[in-house]
Amino acid sequence: MTQKPDQCLGEWIDREALAEAMIPLIGQLYRNNNVVTSIYGRGLINRSVIALLKAHRFARHRQADEAELSVNETHQILTTMSKMDLGAASVDLGKLVAKFKAEGNGRSLDQFVRDELAEVAGKRNTTGVHKGTDVVLYGFGRIGRLLARILIEKTGGGDGLRLRAIVVRKGAENDLVKRASLLRRDSVHGPFDGTIHVDAENNTITANGNLIQVIYSNDPSSVDYTQYGIENALLVDNTGKWRDAEGLGQHLKCPGVARVVLTAPGKGELKNIVHGINHGEITADDKIISAASCTTNAIVPVLKAVNDQFGIVNGHVETVHSYTNDQNLIDNFHKGSRRGRSAALNMVITETGAATAAAKALPVLKGKLTGNAIRVPTPNVSMAILNLNLEKATSRDEINEYLRQMAMHSDLQKQIDFVSSQEVVSTDFVGSRYAGVVDAEATICSDNRVVLYVWYDNEFGYSCQVVRVMEDMAGVNPPAFPR
């Protein structure tokens, strides 16, 4: 039946009102209970009315009948949750609705939610003491600042990861103001979502209530973090200067530092962790680990999914990668081949270790992949082209549908996203929180040979993966629902 204009607008206004009513419930559950809410992996915290409605619309791709997720149902779920005095948890409202429809067995939605979350009901932290894990960012470049944004966004009630300090080399007399300005404004990722205050006398930046000490040091082994009240900290080295256990071990000599995460591929015997793939290998004895590279994080989840279902005989990974700060803006000397030529004017063929590094996270791929890279004149968002020979023949529709299901319902749903549009381009993926996004319309398949195109925000998506590794290393990942 054709809708009338007034009816269509009226329904939209009603949905807007419900979404507005959801915002304080989402915020209170997060700040007071450390409950993180999402819709099929799309985070809901600090989101606008329109963003919430878009998340409900997005969910139609995740439902068996492709029906849009009902705001009435999600609002009801949040209302019930707000009355349960919940302990820390991660709750996917979209999946909860889907499970209710499949397994409600005559129960009301209210009763279903109470049964499903009974494990954490009545377990809210009422002590007023927040036992979060202190975090130190060693280096404050592209990845360091994005990690800061994500950590500040995820502060919640203070029981998770808490950004306490940033360590940099002093670059100028007004260094602190410049560092704060770079956190506040970003040419690619836009303005910081919140407020920032600079205290030059005490060398601190306060961002959304997070008091961050800025420490100036040229020596990774000489800082006493305990003098700033920092204890048992998780230090994240974003400099890439040291990539083996010996070099990174210098941080462990500092009072107040307990563990180290490297945001680059590790060398030697360091564990290279791709969250969603081998994060289960992190143990309490691991003092230093690597979060691998952005490209390794982008390709390994998709490669694992394909190998599990179809088997990979061999293949080649070609990365079309945005230029990075390692390259020259204009032609100048560079120790690397070709990288001395202007990044803004040239496509530059260069090497990538991602294909080899993939085998560190997923040993079944050892010796099966080759890889290369082309740096291109864009500031962010890259693409990995996976040219694979499979053990089993398949079709374009079959492998696309399989990867869509993996993005929706598998343990890799935070790593793999899926898009089916002939109009998307690289800037559409700026800010993507996934390790990689499969572009279904670009898939090529012929018998047992397939070519997959995987977009990834090599800055923000990778930073989200790093934070997931940090949460596992710190042991601050709450139970996820529905089970």
Automatic annotation (TrEMBL):
Q: What top-level branch of life does the organism fall under?
A: Bacteria
- InterPro entries, alphabetically? GlycerAld/Erythrose_P_DH, GlycerAld_3-P_DH_AS, GlycerAld_3-P_DH_cat, GlycerAld_3-P_DH_NAD(P)-bd, Glyceraldehyde-3-P_DH_1, NAD(P)-bd_dom_sf
What EC number(s) does the entry state?
1.2.1.-
The Glyceraldehyde 3-phosphate dehydrogenase NAD(P) binding domain sits at 133-294
GO BP terms: namely: glucose metabolic process
* Molecular function terms, GO-annotated: NAD binding; NADP binding; oxidoreductase activity, acting on the aldehyde or oxo group of donors, NAD or NADP as acceptor
Report the Pfam families cross-referenced here: Gp_dh_C (PF02800), Gp_dh_N (PF00044)
SUPFAM superfamilies according to UniProt = Glyceraldehyde-3-phosphate dehydrogenase-like, C-terminal domain, NAD(P)-binding Rossmann-fold domains
Annotated CDD domains: GAPDH_I_C, GAPDH_I_N
State the UniProt keywords alphabetically: Oxidoreductase
Top enzyme class, one word, equals oxidoreductase
| Assigned protein family | Belongs to the glyceraldehyde-3-phosphate dehydrogenase family.
Cite the NCBIfam families for this sequence: GAPDH-I, PRK08289.1
Q: Kindly provide the name given to this protein in its UniProt entry.
A: Glyceraldehyde-3-phosphate dehydrogenase
